[in-house]
């Protein structure tokens, strides 16, 4: 069942979303050569604590993993698609790209967002990968309007990504969000004819998150049971926003 939110609930989600935005903006300024992904983790966790928010990811249990996720951030570097674990040993260096994904629960409601950032001078292909992924998200957000269908969002991402020579990760999808981190509907970044294609209605809130590979679409999960990487070792990019469907069009809750 897809849970629709009233304006009071959307305002609470807006507060959670703006906290996520503030955290990611701070981390984007931190990202530089010599910084570890664990440095980002420490900063993010303190900001959540100071705001009185609960981390959405830390302690999350996935059916596919044997342990709860131990961090407030997912930091996925280069060929890591999603769910990369912060580490003192993972030092960022020029040419790297890092996806920083995080979420919070505030006043009972969740916000979730992700951004991919380049370190120093990155390759033209890596820059284009990031640009196309970000563009596909913005184009998908424009389709998050009452009266459209879910596949309008999914197909928009798929067409833009494939037209630019990149590939869609199929193992991981976006999702509804509200009082739970993951709610219905699932939101693939491609048109999955086997899935549901509900009509979009006011009050729905969607976490739209294109995950795009430079090479082949395949993914595998590392022995830590969390970190997903590209099968061919090429780079992957990831951008995400939490978006409410309103009478006035899409309302991105995770940016001002």
Tally of extended strands?
A: 15
Which stretches of 5+ consecutive residues score pLDDT under 50?
A: none
Given helix and strand content, the structural type is alpha+beta
CATH superfamily caption = Creatinase/methionine aminopeptidase superfamily
Number of domains: 1
What is the end-to-end distance? 29 Å
Q: What are its keywords?
A:
256 residues; alpha+beta; Creatine Amidinohydrolase; 4-stranded antiparallel sheet; 4 helices; 15 strands; globular
Walk me through what this model shows.
The protein has 256 residues and is α+β, with helices and mostly antiparallel strands. The chain has a single domain, classed as Creatine Amidinohydrolase. The chain contains four helices and 15 strands. It has helices spanning 7-30, 37-51, 124-142, 150-163; strands at residues 54-55, 73-77, 80-82, 97-106, 109-118, 167-168, 174-176, 183-187, 205-208, 211-213, 219-221, 228-230, 236-238, 241-246, 249-252. The strands form four sheets. It has a five-stranded antiparallel beta sheet with strand order 8-7-9-14-15. α1 runs antiparallel to α2. The longest helix has 24 residues, at 7-30.
């Amino acid at each position: 069942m897809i849970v629709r939110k009233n304006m009071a609930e959307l305002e609470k989600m807006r507060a959670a979303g703006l906290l996520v935005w503030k955290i990611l903006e701070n981390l984007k300024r931190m990202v530089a050569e010599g910084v570890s992904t664990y440095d980002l983790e420490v900063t993010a966790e303190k900001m959540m604590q100071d705001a009185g928010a609960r981390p959405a990811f830390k302690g999350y249990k996935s059916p596919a993993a044997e342990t709860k996720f131990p961090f407030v951030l997912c930091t996925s570097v280069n060929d890591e698609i999603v769910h990369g674990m912060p580490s003192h040993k993972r030092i960022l260096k020029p040419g790297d790209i890092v996806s920083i994904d995080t979420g919070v629960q505030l006043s009972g409601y969740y916000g979730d967002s992700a951004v991919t950032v380049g370190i120093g001078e990155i390759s033209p292909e890596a820059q284009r990968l990031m640009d196309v992924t970000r563009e596909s998200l913005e184009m998908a957000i424009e389709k998050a309007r009452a009266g459209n269908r879910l596949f309008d969002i999914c197909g928009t991402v798929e067409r833009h990504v494939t037209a630019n020579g990149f590939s869609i990760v199929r193992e991981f999808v976006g999702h509804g969000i509200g009082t739970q981190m993951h709610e219905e509907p699932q939101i693939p970044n491609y048109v999955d004819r086997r899935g549901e294609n509900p009509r979009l209605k006011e009050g729905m809130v969607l976490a739209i998150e294109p995950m795009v590979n430079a090479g082949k679409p395949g993914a595998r999960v590392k022995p830590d049971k969390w970190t997903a990487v590209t099968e061919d070792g090429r780079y992957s990019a990831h951008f995400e926003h939490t978006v409410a469907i309103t009478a006035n069009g899409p309302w991105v809750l995770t940016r001002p």
